[in-house]
Design brief:
The complex is a heterodimer of chains A (205) and B (502). Chain A has helices at residues 4-30, 51-62, 116-119, 123-131, 181-192, and strands spanning 36-37, 44-45, 149-153, 175-179. Chain A is mostly helical and 205 residues long. Chain A has one domain: Cytochrome c-like domain (Cytochrome Bc1 Complex, Chain D, domain 2). Chain B is an all-alpha fold and 502 residues long. Chain B has a single domain (3-484), classed as Up-down Bundle (Cytochrome C Oxidase, Chain A), CATH 1.20.210. At the A-B interface, helix 1 and helix 2 of A face helix 2, helix 4, helix 5, helix 8 and helix 9 of B.
Amino acid sequence: MNRLTTLFAGFFLTFFTAWIGLVIIPYVQFGQLEPKLDEDTGDQFPAARTGLAERGKQVYQANGCLYCHSQQIRPYDVEDGHNRGWGARRTVPRDYLYDKPHVLGTMRTGPDLTNVGQRLADAAWHHEHLYAPQSKSAWSTMAPYKYLYRVQKIQGQPSPKALKLQGEYAPPAGYEVVPTPDAEALVAYLLSLNRNYALPEAPLE
Amino acid sequence: MSTATANIPDTNNAADRAAIDRSCRVPVLTFFATAIFWLLAGTVFALLASIKLHHPNFAIEIPEWSAMVIRALDPFIPASTVDAINGALTFGRVRPAHLNTVAYGWAATAALGVCIWLMARLCRVQLRHSGFVTAAGVIWNIGMFVGTGAILFGQSTSVEWLEFPPYASFLLFIAYALISIWAVDMFVHRKPGHVYVSQWYLMAALFWFPWLYGTANILIHLQPVQGSVQAIVNWWYGHNALGLWFTPVGLAAAYYFIPKVIGRPVHSYYLSAFGFWSLALFYSWNGGHHLIGGPLPAWVITASTVASVMMIIPVVVTAINHHMTMKGNFHVLEYSPTLRFVVFGAMAYTLASLQGSTMAIRSLNKITHFTDYTIGHSHLGLYAFFTMIMFGSMYYIVPRLVGAEWRSAALIKIHFWSCAYGIIFMVLILTVGGLIQGLGLRDANISFKDIVENTLFYKVVRSGTGFLLTLGHVVFAFHFLLMLLRLGRSGGGPTLFKPANG
């Protein structure tokens, strides 16, 4: 085993087979999927994200939401997430057509967000929750994202976007809390998360 | 050939060895010193992240007085700086900053230093044009600063193990490629004699990693493929970064330092070869076990699960080989700091790998996936195994580079025991906490609130174990700084835990 070429042939072959197996074949097999077209309504599943929601996904990535929240529902024999209302079916490759990069996540310090847009469809709730998670659930260990909001003096009419915060979470009198563009994009992204549609390979159960 | 090839092919001439060490001094010390800097930075990020997991409102904003100072400096410093700094403190940024500073800043930088020194020693040649290797080290560190800054200030890609944006990972790639080329150059110019097992591991790692890193960055960041393919590429990369980069370097060091310190050849050449090639064959297929139940065809997951279980072969073979080498010499652990750290690491390698094989089995994975159990496993691998071996290697290498012995056996003792106890307790507490979390998640009758509250205690204790590790790191960094400032002990034998004849 002293010859450089012999050694490298071995290094190459062992690694190359795995590269073919775990990178190239998956790409060929499920790397060019198309959304499903509903013939009657013309709707596509999954739907392409709008500009604001797509920008919100970048905010999601920049602030590391996926270190606590997954976006994948596994088969029913593997998990109990469907009984928590997290999803009506397992997720499949086609659900992630537009995720570049993917945000499947590996941790459930917080709940799964595969369908959070359907489960929690109120933008105001999300803003208040992002600003002060403990205002919604006192036991929550979620980080507050106050830096995505501005505390500003009320000038004349209060802003229609101002958060309706209660008690200890409310700003001082005469001030209001309003979302930054980043926060609005993030909430648009969260509201866009809904994978509860039927696909031929994954019917709703 | 068995005995001859099981010997470490170091030159017997002390003057030649000293000349080789001298040729490595600047680049290797550059890598070591910056590695220890990143270890300390990574430790701070780790503590922040860990505390935030149980006290989410801890350190979320800079103190009001400092915010006022910054706002007063407007327009010289934009007032939005306050939000930028507060953003940099959020859990979702310090968490990836921790991973990247310890994995690439500490572990990989230390590994590159060890690689260079081991290659020079084992090829029995002086490092030529060492300035280029030092330059590679500088580029690597610039990449680290750029990448870590990018994560903290909102440019993280959030792809685990690949959070650095392409402009930072490109610098790392260039630096790494330079080191790889230099290693091949040393190998080509090696003195006649056999190629030792450590050299296979090092050459393979230096060959595989640029391929891995390049493929992953292209398919995920530069020419992104569709989501599910990205996921498998992500974990093929993430697992191989451990399995085909850190693991080979850790094993190369173990195969060098264990026989070196006890002065015996490796037990069996054939077991070494068998362990190496079976690792190369199976480890590279493991990545899919991070996605069990995920949105991928069953065959991908199954292939990875099978390969993960097959990992028992190289792991047990290597464990037997190391154990038989050590047999009859365990008393040396009482004396040699290098041996104690390295043997601790080698034992942790066996444990971590066997645990990993079990975690790839679906019936256990459905409980441990998405929980702290996995975090415990990764610390068992990257810390108890790899980091401890790097510490041991540095205890051996640094005195030969600076020409002085470690100042204090007591400091080394504190380092060893705080890190050993710290990591053992951390892994245990994460494992138990992870099981509670995982069993809770499996049962929808247990509310999410209950899961959060039931695991809170374990998160608090985990932070405590982090402080133990911090103590060890600070002591080690201080000791290393003394060596760097030429305040080591000159003359006399190596610094041992107790006198060799005692």
